[in-house]
TrEMBL record:
Subcellular location: Cell envelope
Signal among keywords: yes
Domain Periplasmic binding protein: 46-332
Endpoints of the signal sequence: 1-23
InterPro entries: Bact_Solute-Bind_Prot2 (IPR050555), ChvE-like (IPR049784), Peripla_BP_I (IPR028082), SBP_2_dom (IPR025997)
Superkingdom of origin: Bacteria
Keywords annotated in UniProt: Signal, Sugar transport, Transport
Name of the protein described by the UniProt record: Multiple sugar transport system substrate-binding protein
Length: 385
């Protein structure tokens, strides 16, 4: 996949502080590992482990983290694992062997890195979990992410708005029409999946209880609706199977689909279009939600094909990761705004949570174009420049 253009964002907080201390201090900087205080960031390496380059979102994350770390004075070892767990394990092991001082890790499988991160801990290397919590180990020091339960709430709210049950302010319209939906969830080995699913289902539950919504297939448990590796083709096949088993191959009533990710959304939409549900929402295509505001889906939203996507500004997430790394480099604890929610089975990991936004057709410009995340030409073409 072509690497997307980096979307710049100003460095703030600890990242700027670290750079300023390096440039302006009149004292001789100490050297040593990140956990032992005062190391010169210009002599430090941060290992950045990203899960895949098959998603434009993760490419943008990797580039944003790398760029901001380099601007703060660090050497950076950025690796993408191609959605292969053993590859990511080997990459992290190599980062440790090569002398990384700090690790930033977006895991493929949040339960598969315990031995690698314990090796990092043994060497005094702080570990920052990036967007996906790492489970089953004491050796994760900090977590930067979005409020993932709230992201799930927003996914459901966007679906309910598209179906007419919520207005533009996401308040109940009082619509009593009975509508039929299906539910998709993310990969079962991604810790975020449970939070997305929980927030979404809690939001849909009152409408399911009062009968305004029905899940046509009856499939609603997480193991029934999960999509391994968030894979678009897997989602398309499941949607095709549902259409065959529950919707007479495409002639049955289906009003909406809860989707947790834009790639999954595109697979669902392809199946629906191929089954004859229409090319757009206006022509009968069911309302489909999404997440990540990938450019192909943003164009589909602009064109009235996909209804919504959740925008998680990964530039801000990268900045927060850099701030956490800079805190460790200065022998300080990163600022957390949540110390209760993210229990990885061994410890509650101190976390910094960011806010997300619901993107629909009428706020693409204000949320994505005016902020420089995508350009008008990219939205028009559906391709990153």
């Amino acid at each position: 996949m072509k690497r997307t253009a980096l979307r710049p964002i100003a460095l703030t907080g600890a990242a700027v502080l670290a750079l300023g201390l390096t440039a302006c201090s009149t004292d001789s900087p100490e050297t040593g590992d990140a956990g032992n205080g005062g190391a010169d960031v210009q002599e430090m390496t941060v290992g950045v482990a990203m899960p895949t380059e098959t998603s434009e979102r993760w490419i943008a994350d990797g580039e944003a983290v790398e760029s901001q770390l380099e601007a703060a004075g660090y050497d950076v070892d950025l690796q993408f694992a191609g959605d292969d767990i053993s590859t990511q394990q080997q990459q992290i092991e190599q980062m440790i062997t090569n002398g990384a001082d700090i690790l930033i890790v977006a895991s493929i499988d949040g339960t598969a890195l315990a031995s690698q991160l314990e090796a990092a801990s043994d060497r005094g290397i702080p570990v920052i979990a990036y967007d996906r919590l790492i489970n089953g180990t004491e050796a994760v020091d900090f977590y930067v992410t979005f409020d993932n339960y709230e992201v799930g709430v927003q996914q459901a709210q966007s679906l309910l708005r598209g179906l007419g049950y919520l207005d533009e302010s996401y308040q109940d319209t009082g619509l009593e029409d009975e509508k039929i939906i299906e539910v998709f969830a993310g990969s079962p080995d991604d810790n975020n999946t449970g939070f997305f699913y929980g927030g979404a289902m809690d939001t849909l539950e009152p409408f399911l209880e009062d009968g305004r919504l029905t899940i046509g297939s009856g499939q609603r448990t997480l193991d029934q609706v999960a999509t391994l590796r968030w894979d678009q083709a897997t989602a398309q096949r499941r949607m095709e199977d549902l259409l065959t088993s529950t919707y007479s191959g495409g002639s049955g009533q289906l009003d909406g689909v809860l989707s947790p990710y834009d790639g999954i959304s595109r697979g669902i939409i392809t199946a629906l279009q191929n089954a004859g549900y229409g090319d757009s929402i206006e022509s009968g295509l069911p309302v489909v939600s999404g997440q990540d505001s990938e450019i192909a889906s943003v164009k589909m939203i602009a064109d009235g094909v996909q209804f919504a996507s959740i925008f998680k500004d990964t530039r801000k997430l990268a900045t927060q990761a850099v701030e956490a790394a800079s805190s460790y480099a200065e022998a300080q604890e990163p600022e957390a705004n949540d110390t209760e929610t993210y229990d990885n089975g061994v410890k509650v990991v101190p976390s910094y949570l960011l806010e997300s936004d619901i993107v629909v057709a009428d706020n693409i410009d204000s949320l994505l174009v005016e902020t420089g995340y995508w350009t008008e030409s990219e939205v028009a073409s559906g391709l990153a420049d």
